[in-house]
Design a protein that fits this description.
2 copies of one chain form a homodimer.
Chain A lengths: L9 E2 L5 E3 L4 H22 L22 H18 L3 H16 L9 H6 L13 H19 L3 H16 L16 H12 L2 H13 L6 H5 L8 H4 L5 H4 L16 H18 L2 H17 L31 H17 L3 H15 L17 E2 L14 H10 L6 E3 L3 E4 L5 E7 L2 E9 L6 E7 L4 E8 L7 E5 L2 E3 L5 E2 L2 E8 L4 E6 L3 E6 L9 E6 L2 E6 L10 E4 L4 E6 L6 E11 L9 E2 L5 E10 L11 E2 L2 E4 L1
Parallel strand pairs in A: 5-9, 18-24
Antiparallel strand pairs in A: 1-4, 2-6, 3-23, 4-5, 6-7, 7-8, 8-14, 9-13, 10-11, 10-14, 12-13, 15-16, 16-17, 16-24, 17-22, 17-23, 18-20, 19-20, 20-22
Helix pairs in contact in A: 1-2, 1-16, 2-3, 2-5, 2-16, 5-6, 5-7, 7-8, 7-12, 8-12, 12-13, 12-14, 14-15
Chain lengths: ~625, ~625
Amino acid sequence: MHVLNQNRLRPVSFSNVVINDAFWSPRIKVNREQTIPHQYKQCKETGRIDAFKLDWKQGMDNEPHIFWDSDVAKWIEAASYSLATHPDPELDRLVDEVIELIASAQQEDGYLNIYFSVVKPGMRWTDLRDAHELYCAGHLIEAGVAHYEATRKRTLLEVVCKYADHIDSVFGREEGKLRGYCGHQEIELALIKLYHATGEERYLKLSQYFIDERGQKPHYFELEKKDSTGYFEDIMRYMDNLKEYNQSHKPVREQSKVVGHSVRAMYMYTAMAELAGETGDASLLEACERLWEHLHLKNMFITGGIGSTGKNEGFTFDYDLPNETSYAETCASIGLVFWNHRMLQLECESKYADAIERALFNGVISGVSLDGKKFFYANPLASVGDRHRKEWFGCACCPPNIARLLASLGGYIYSQSPDDIIVHQYIEGEAIINIHGQQVKIGQKGNYPWDGHLTFLLGLEHEDKFGLKLRIPGWCKNAELKVNHERVNILQNMDKGYVYLERLWKDGDIIELDLSMPIEKVYSHPNVRQNVHHTAIQRGPIVYCIESADNMEHLQRVMLPNDANLTAIYDESLLGGVVKILGDAEVLDSHQWENSLYRTEKPTSRPYQITAIPYYAWDNRESGQMRVWIPEKE
Amino acid sequence: MHVLNQNRLRPVSFSNVVINDAFWSPRIKVNREQTIPHQYKQCKETGRIDAFKLDWKQGMDNEPHIFWDSDVAKWIEAASYSLATHPDPELDRLVDEVIELIASAQQEDGYLNIYFSVVKPGMRWTDLRDAHELYCAGHLIEAGVAHYEATRKRTLLEVVCKYADHIDSVFGREEGKLRGYCGHQEIELALIKLYHATGEERYLKLSQYFIDERGQKPHYFELEKKDSTGYFEDIMRYMDNLKEYNQSHKPVREQSKVVGHSVRAMYMYTAMAELAGETGDASLLEACERLWEHLHLKNMFITGGIGSTGKNEGFTFDYDLPNETSYAETCASIGLVFWNHRMLQLECESKYADAIERALFNGVISGVSLDGKKFFYANPLASVGDRHRKEWFGCACCPPNIARLLASLGGYIYSQSPDDIIVHQYIEGEAIINIHGQQVKIGQKGNYPWDGHLTFLLGLEHEDKFGLKLRIPGWCKNAELKVNHERVNILQNMDKGYVYLERLWKDGDIIELDLSMPIEKVYSHPNVRQNVHHTAIQRGPIVYCIESADNMEHLQRVMLPNDANLTAIYDESLLGGVVKILGDAEVLDSHQWENSLYRTEKPTSRPYQITAIPYYAWDNRESGQMRVWIPEKE
């Protein structure tokens, strides 16, 4: 039996962190100034907000969709995080207005759901498998908590508490209650947040019930669908394994392989990890560890994208990582960040923070355009020119998901334990962390991810002995560390991927970390059939791609010689400022091929200079092809 | 303006050809003894045959499907061809019985269609785009002609003439007629066959009307679907271009690119080519030539498979030839054979016969298992182990299509003109061809496709001067020819890919053709992004694949070194007797990869002996992976 780490970390809240970072601050600004208003506009124009008026009637146009509540809730959550770090009376007012509308939609008994109030009244809780009812509730709860924590206003919090109380009265093992759970996990992690915000243990227990009950026999969805079909029956018909699709194929503690819909999986694992921490249930952590290995060692794209096919919006089989048809939903990479963030508090191992970094710098922010107004739902690793971000989606989960993550990014940088400060992510700015009753200031300076030189400055009112942990990223093979300009031996101070400095710190102490950041060529496990003989370019945490805009139309003709000379150059005018990589590549000739599709003569090649850009920045210029994995020529 | 060749060839009918070939005869036997009875059983058990009783009523199970008539018709066609070369009283009786049932389903006015008689009575000709009504008529007509030609019985022929007369009274440009055409081309080519069988010019004209009217404005399907939806509306919604899907986006003479559903395209081009020959309409031939180039130079798999995606069961964009998801429908490759066979009679160029050979030996016969009872609908070029032939399909077009092709294979071997005999395909046996009033016998001997040595023996009652053309296959780089043991210079006698021997022939003349048949490594055009850095093995007309059954589970790890030593060995115990290819390959190691999915160290490799088998024979043993294109190591 795994012994649960008693010294669980606590993340440092984003409200104690100021980000002042050349890479992230402009993104957060765009998120605040463009994305959040854009999403409000979309929610408003598509009727999602006014749907809370519950005045839709059968026969009217624009029937409310089962997901609509969650889109608005995630927008409120994003807006709230933004208000916490950047007060904005106008946005504050807008949020209040929307909350008022939501509150007005709450039924006497606490129930709150647009679709089942106006489209299918009287049908509450009859389609847990497909209809996303508890999922929407979960997002409303997350919004209520975020709004309360950002503004200290209890308006939405009280609404969602009342709703959660109602849900608690409906679901459970007690006589007369429904012994069900949601087809799309989400409420489980939301209820833990609500527990943290309110201290009400019933919410934690309800979350635990949902997690524990999942996959038990008799199987709830089997019973539910015995005499009825679900909202997505026509889609579900094409699923090979419906129970795996929503991870209810086994009780969660018996699960070892990531299966099914990837966002559902991530949200569930997030709740499992957090419950493990809250309850000390090592069996949940063990399941998480097995699932983590299976995901990260066999089923994750190099960008931190997950989900190999759009068919089930999820996992297929080990090492199946197709490039053009990768699903890699933005929401799934965000869920990966959530889950790893919870794991990191349980076990301070750099692999979790590495996974967060991989996703953040690649498969998450690829989900939004540089101007903040267009979004990828799926994030393919190659395109023949037909994949583009869109302003909105009928099922609009991804846009507000990335908005809420960017608005709360500060919360992913640091953790603390009673005696330690841990730096997981390298993002410039400052944090205030209470250690031994003292508000310790820690400042980060650098030009990450373009440069590996980082400086940390401590601000203390009085000297104190505590530990400082700095992550040595998995991609980094050589690092140097100095404390107050004196070299420290990193290797002798390593602890699960972090360099650990325990000493008497004083005000003005300077720590310098130098992470060597050469351009690397990366290879996939030989079982990834799509990438055999291919290589990807990575520098620091940034995964690169080649795009037609900088190169040629037919990118598949480009090959990277084994010994290709690659050069990194910062180009401030390119894509908001990026380190681009120039390389001596080769390109296949086609001039002898005019009259053949197949020949016994091998295609010849000629030298060709390629330009690679960070993957996250693709599809921000003219339309064209893109690929991350490039054929390698020996 | 292209000048249409005045000396159009005539194919030598399969009834004048005896096949006695080590490769094909066992297949034709299996087709006769297993496949045709198996398909009768399937048609019977699924209710397709009894549906002609028209006793299905609303509310009953097993609602007749819009394709059912065509499945039974194609079975009759296959059975008839078989009867022509292998009389079988029992089969003859069975065919008569089915024909009697079909005849009983014919309405007073000649109309004959199960679905629109019992499921949608009163709705005749209201859904030409989707409902396959004229398509089914076309297959009934082909069956009627085949049955008549095989047995000289007029039972079904008269039924279909009456039906064709009815169709002729309904469709056309005359006042009061419907100015429509079928969403799934087929009747066009069938009506030309009916014209040939009966001499009735109205059938030719009706075919021409359908071809000429297609894609004209106002667009018939636009008018038809103004106030109604089609049978496949839910599928059609996902089509990017509905008019391209059924090749009605432009008048046929203006078409230059193969688009849409590949079987529809092939059947249409077949009719266009034949009409060009019948009417001397060079503009139709020119369109065919443009389309031919576009298909064969940019959109054909190496197996002769066509159709790059299941989405539209058809074409996507140039050079998009995915391996695992290739559609390559068996019917489409058969349609490719039909079309090329018509082109070959118009222009005796080896490229057409080469295309037939490529499809026949690879993507067509891969469609049926060695035991004759299981069928591929799609013929992928790679499989991760999940693709298997099935006994039958809800939409069962492919199984009887391959049965009718195999039963009439003799018709694809020879053509003649008044003064020439042309040998297109190398299949052992004998043909009787009337030249200058004399029944010339031509015998073929050899062990094709395993061996390139071929012997032709002429049998004449008296000496005569005529031409003999033998195809030098496109895959062959060295050939030798002897007439009566005397070497003939091939190069000086080449005519569009055929060696042409015009002389005074006498009884007993022997022609020996030696086609050098080394193992070749084949490469794709550099624009085929799926095959960059990959090679396929081909020997003679046979495309090879590697299968897990002979090799390892994870085939993607196999690489073929540039200078790999490859050896061809005939193995009579393998897959009914094949030349297998052994090769010194390499295989990627994974033992350093236990804990990584991505690394900066390139995977190492070790020597590995591979066995390749003919592509057509894959998936006849235990389940496993398969691939045609193998990564090449320089």
